Amino acid sequence: MSAQSSPACMTPQNEQEKVFQWINELAHPETREAALLELSKKRETVTDLAPMLWHSFGTIAALLQEIINIYPSINPATLTAHQSNRVCNALALLQCVASHPDTRTVFLQAQIPLFLYPFLQTTSKTRPFEYLRLTSLGVIGALVKTDEQEVITFLLTTEIIPLCLRIMEFGSELSKTVATFILQKILLDESGLSHICQTYERFSHVAIILGKMVIQLAKEPSARLLKHVVRCYLRLSDNPRAREALRQCLPDQLRDATFSVCLQDDKSTKHWLQLLIKNLELAAVQPTDPRQMGMSPLTSQLHRLDLLAFCFPFPLRDFDQN
């Protein structure tokens, strides 16, 4: 084979022509699968692939068709590895569109993330489903990574928070990490923090899941997951009402030296944890409720959260809405 025809020596012009060819092939069911695979490989190397995908006729519709086609395979759970790989290639291209500044707004305006939510609702722990959930989370993660207000505003109108919380409780370590990162990004936005701390129901749901994660992390440490959990707690402590509640329900494992080894080489997380403890003034607030004697850590934490229903200082009108 001559150097001129070698793929390794393909010119930028020839490569762009090949990309356009693959995009055109997405419109045809018989060539779509191969084109999805090739384009997904190029999504990080081809400049402006996202605008090409968005503005080419029928391409986004073809990607959405790939997503919709496997809805019947998720309930009942019959999704195969081949189906999962194919739709994840389509999701990878949507992540490319979600990440690009020229296509992100129209991506949200078209409410395309909602097509991914059925995948986030799945509970099967098989590899095809886990891969599907993780790739779907990657699309949402690409959106929140931009720290743009319009992204958070959109997400707060959807069910993304309870979906992430369920994955944080039952998902794999990697899925939990991405889901917690998404929650962290929502909390870091002022409207996101206000939304979660607006009612006791919302706050307690987040606090209970974070508490369960801390207890599980004490048994199976993960520095990268713990980092996002601590950051979520720290951000919650910026809200006066949530800070008062956290004084009662922060897991004991974050107060003592449970994670000292895990955080030994993680200066940023160690610093965030110190700030959290300082914010809550834990040295002056020690749990002394005798009814907690002999309880397991999780039972104790849930008991304290139950007590917060009576002491969490939300106006009564906050309980009227979810």
UniProtKB/TrEMBL annotation:
- Taxonomic superkingdom: Eukaryota
Task: Name the predominant localization.
Answer: cytoplasm
SUPFAM superfamilies, A to Z: ARM repeat (SSF48371)
Q: Where found? A: Cytoplasm, P-body; Nucleus
On whether Chloroplast is a keyword of this UniProt record, the answer is no
Its GO biological process terms?
Answer: mRNA catabolic process; regulation of translation; regulatory ncRNA-mediated gene silencing
Gene Ontology cellular-component terms listed: CCR4-NOT complex; cytosol; nucleus; P-body
Per its UniProt record, what InterPro entries does this chain match? ARM-like, ARM-type_fold, CNOT9
Alphabetized UniProt keyword annotations: Activator, Cytoplasm, Nucleus, Repressor, RNA-mediated gene silencing, Transcription, Transcription regulation, Translation regulation
Q: Which family does it belong to?
A: Belongs to the CNOT9 family.
The name of this protein is: CCR4-NOT transcription complex subunit 9
Which gene name belongs to this protein? LOC119637159
